[in-house]
Write a structure and sequence with these properties.
Layout (H helix, E strand, L loop, with lengths): L1 H21 L14 E4 L6 E5 L4 H11 L3 E5 L1 E3 L12 E4 L1 E6 L8 H4 L1 E4 L5 E3 L13 E4 L4 H23 L6 E5 L4 E6 L2 H4 L3 H12 L11 E3 L2 E3 L7 H14 L3 H10 L4 H20 L12 H15 L5 H5 L4 E3 L13 E3 L1 H4 L23 E6 L3 E2 L2 E3 L2 E3 L2 E2 L3 E5 H9 L3 E3 L4
Antiparallel strand pairs: 1-2, 1-3, 3-14, 4-5, 6-11, 7-8, 7-9, 10-11, 10-15, 12-13, 16-21, 16-22, 17-20, 18-19
The structure holds zinc ion (2 copies).
Length: about 425
């Protein structure tokens, strides 16, 4: 208990110092006085919601005084953000929020760094099985780790959503797009545009369906049979037909083994797969050079093509946390504040900055989420989690660690491991 007190005190003091030093550069979100704010403090599990701030100075005072573990503001605008009753808040519209977080989709490297530990039989392993493979217990402690590869996949997803959907298909102006690294395992997009602010939850659901490609009707996109010949998706169009055609061309230019894996994954049989692979080159030739749009492949009727296109749409569709975009009362992390699970800063980025941005090794100091980077301050910790995967941060690899390990790490790594709750300080702060 004493150690825990000391740990919390250390993190509160560290966060306070950060907010004091950075008050002058804390970003101010648009329509600031109309946003609802929410905070999670270190010693309480309840979230303080329904707070409003007249100006950035009063917010800074609050951050310096209470150094919260997590800081959020609303995507919505309210006449009275401080009134708890949602009906009396005076709702005036909501920005379109898109959350891209590797917590919500599979990345291959997770099989290496994410793991589990069984509280019943004490077995441990990698990956994310639904139950303990040894004893069947559902009481698994899950360890999901931050990783450069995952974050790069999330970043590519953001770029794809922007350049393949939001900008070309919705005509969104680049200047209305706010991008932020979340401080943990993903990115947020906020579209600040009057047209989007007026949308109902139902309309937002339709946008989400469009972005993810769920419930696509391939016949509407041009797929049809005439006199026993299958004709493919319309060419030279915008929207989903174009996205699917582009991905088909990409896939068919990959090695046969990759294509075979894809066809197996979508549930096709061996003879169908062989037939497809045999005729793939002729098909690709017709696909890229002919306006006939003849998609006939022996053994591939229109239903097979629908299965194929469903699989393609899942490759292309945006991997987003859907409820976040649909719910008009959602809160998102406030830019420039610290994420209590990592001690990393929520970093706003422009579209141009996003391309080369690596949150775990940022080139530009002013855009570095790792704000406690002090190589000269070493801190002694004891690992309290069964196992801690390796972390590659700023070019150095820390870990993997096991329970009971005594380690000495620079301050930013200590803050990170303490926030992740996998270590405790050996020094009394
Ligand atoms: Zn078990
Ligand atoms: Zn990863």
């Amino acid at each position: 208990m004493k150690k825990n007190m000391s740990l919390t005190r250390f993190l509160i003091r560290t966060f306070k110092d950060y907010y004091k030093k950075n008050a002058a550069v804390l970003p101010k979100v648009s329509n600031f006085p109309k946003r609802e704010f929410a905070f999670l403090l270190w010693d309480k599990s309840v979230m303080f919601r329904h707070m409003g701030f007249e100006n950035i100075d009063t917010l800074n005072d609050y951050l310096i005084n209470s150094a919260p573990k997590h800081v959020y503001s609303s995507g919505s605008l309210y006449a009275h953000p401080e009134i708890p009753d949602m009906d009396k808040k005076g709702y005036e519209g909501c920005d379109l929020i898109i959350d891209i977080d590797v917590d919500h989709f599979y990345t291959p490297c997770k099989d290496d760094h994410d793991g589990w530990y069984c509280n019943s039989c004490f077995k441990r392993g990698k990956g994310m099985p639904p139950a303990c493979p040894e004893c069947g217990s559902l009481k698994l402690k899950r360890i999901s780790w931050i990783c450069e590869k995952c974050l790069n996949i999330a970043k590519k997803e953001v770029i794809k959503i922007l350049y393949d959907s939001l900008i070309p298909d919705f005509g969104i102006d680049e200047t209305s797009v706010m991008i932020a690294f979340s401080g943990h395992r993903g990115y947020h997009l906020k579209i600040e545009d009057d047209i989007f602010r007026e949308l109902s939850s139902d309309a937002r659901r339709e946008i989400v369906d469009y972005l993810t490609g769920d419930n696509l009707n391939f016949e509407i996109l041009g797929l049809k049979t005439r006199s026993g010949i299958v004709y493919g998706l319309s060419q030279n169009s915008i929207g989903w037909a174009k996205k699917l055609n582009k991905e088909i061309e990409y896939l068919l230019n990959q090695p046969d083994l990759d294509i075979e894996h894809f066809l197996l994954d979508i549930g096709l049989k061996k003879n169908q797969i062989n037939s497809f692979l045999n005729q793939k080159d002729i098909f690709l030739e017709r696909f890229t050079n002919s306006e006939l749009n003849d998609w006939s492949i022996e053994g591939f009727d229109i239903n097979k093509w629908k299965i194929f296109l469903k699989g393609i749409s899942e490759r292309v569709g945006a991997k987003i946390d859907e409820p976040v975009s649909i719910d008009i009362h959602r809160l998102i992390r406030y830019p420039g504040t610290l994420h209590g699970k990592t001690g990393f800063k929520v970093q706003e980025l422009s579209l141009q900055e996003l391309e080369d941005f690596n949150p775990l090794d940022a080139a530009d100091k002013s855009h570095d989420p790792i704000v406690f980077d002090q190589q000269d301050i070493d801190i002694n910790l004891e690992i309290v989690e069964e196992f801690v995967p390796a972390s590659k941060i700023k070019g150095f690899t820390y870990g993997p660690y096991n329970k009971g390990d005594n380690i000495t790490v620079p301050k930013h790594i200590a803050v990170y491991l303490l926030c992740k709750e996998v270590a405790k300080p050996l020094t009394i702060f």
